[in-house]
């Protein structure tokens, strides 16, 4: 990727619905919070390139977490940029 600034992109599928998370989040923290809410065990899998997938094995819920290192896109905003003013 050269000298371009990079960020880890996290995508979470919950029961077949996909969500791309805001940049700057820690993948391990995201998985920990999911696992606390829906007890189960994550299985880590390496994909081609610089991509990884973590699948939560649990009864009753299907959750897949994908991570990929990509070039930072200024249109993605700052980490945790919600578009709302903080109190």
Number of helices: 1
What is the CA–CA distance across the termini?
38 Å
Q: Which residues form runs of ≥5 with pLDDT under 50?
A: 80-87
What proportion strand? Answer: 35-45%
Taken from the alpha-carbon principal axes, the silhouette is: elongated
Number of beta strands: 5
Number of domains: 1
Describe the structure in your own words.
It is a single chain. It contains one helix and five strands. It is mainly beta and 87 residues long. It has one domain. Strands 2-1-5-4-3 form a five-stranded antiparallel β-sheet, covered by helices on one side. A hairpin with a 4-residue loop joins strand 3 (41-46) and strand 4 (51-57). The longest helix has 11 residues, at 27-37. It is elongated and about 45 Å long. The termini are far apart. The model is unreliable at 80-87 (pLDDT under 50).
Give me some keywords for this one:
1 helix, 5-stranded antiparallel β-sheet, 5 strands, disordered C terminus, mainly beta, 87 residues, elongated, 40% strand
Note the topology.
Layout: E1 6-14, E2 17-20, H1 27-37, E3 41-46, E4 51-57, E5 63-71
Antiparallel strand pairs: 1-2, 1-5, 3-4, 4-5
Please sum up the structure shown.
This protein is mainly beta and 87 residues long. It has one helix spanning 27-37; strands at residues 6-14, 17-20, 41-46, 51-57, 63-71.
